[in-house]
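Two proteins, back to back. First:
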Amino acid sequence: MSTQIRLYLDAALSAGHQVELTTDQAHYINNVMRLAVGDGVILFNECAGEWAAQIVDARKKRCVVEVTEKLRDPEATPDLWLCFAPIKKQRLDFIIEKATELGVSTLQPVITRHTIVSKIRTDRLHAQAIEASEQCERLNIPDVKDAVSLAQLIKDWPEERRLFVLDERGGALPIHDALMAHREGPHAFLTGPEGGFETSELDLLRKLPFVTPISLGPRILRADTAALAAISCWQSVIGDWQEPLRNRFREE
């Protein structure tokens, strides 16, 4: 048994079809991993599923692979959004990577009054989500949205989607109780910045009919820890962690 390299490729995939990898992917395959003609890789995307492929042309800045056989059909992703106030770079990277691994379908940065990060590069977050999907055998990538203000998020919010807001002021439902009370989706979480939400922001959110304030218990959690703890609870209570584990190891 061996683990082959997985690459997300936004292209049509079918047996016998030859595909040229992106420049970055070619560099990774040829110069970092030092694969050669005849070596195998795995390609995937949300429309085509997962396919085995073989390198047929490998040069310094170019790599062409030929698709050989389908390994998995496309799979549905749990319909869960994570709306989060951007935090400092390393911890933001952690949120993107782990939320992708945990199966979030949409990542929405939200600018709050205490948000201290001024520049949010959506393209970089998108690249990180792709890399995380490649590593965790996910068959699609989260939809990474451009940052919006909290006011804009509320204005455009689809009211049929329940928004669980992490609110540690007291009086919020424990997360398990909130999930059991609102089992029917779709759902989303909203987490604050390092300094937390401003009181006026929480007061406004609590007045909205689609918002449920939730608590994650007695300990004060960092913003990144809180986001991932909430997603994990959701997956455990009503998400796809209740599905049987598939055997994804492939014999070579």
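And the second protein:
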Amino acid sequence: MFLFRRGTARVTPAQAHRDTADTADGAAVLLDVREQAEWNAGHAPGAVHAPLSRLATGAALPAAARNRPLVVICRSGHRSRQAAKLLTGRGADAVDVKGGMNAWASAGLPVVDGRGSRGRIA
């Protein structure tokens, strides 16, 4: 069963936060597709990291994101839209977050760095 419309859906940061808040098996996963330095500077708590550059070369999803609905996020929404299309083409149930981490932070949603301290969007 798919939670999202395949290939075309976009969600707001608030919807993404709500849809990924439950960490139970089968719940949607927030998949951050930014590069390592961006991730280290700041990401959403509980997100799973899988850079688009790796996914585009055929890398597998991290185990925590396999066989689960995906809410894909990047800095501004451009890469996440590409990643959602790529992942949908591989059979994943994926949507992207409009405005990315910039919109996430602007909505007052939490951002942490690699050490769990308050992060920033790079």
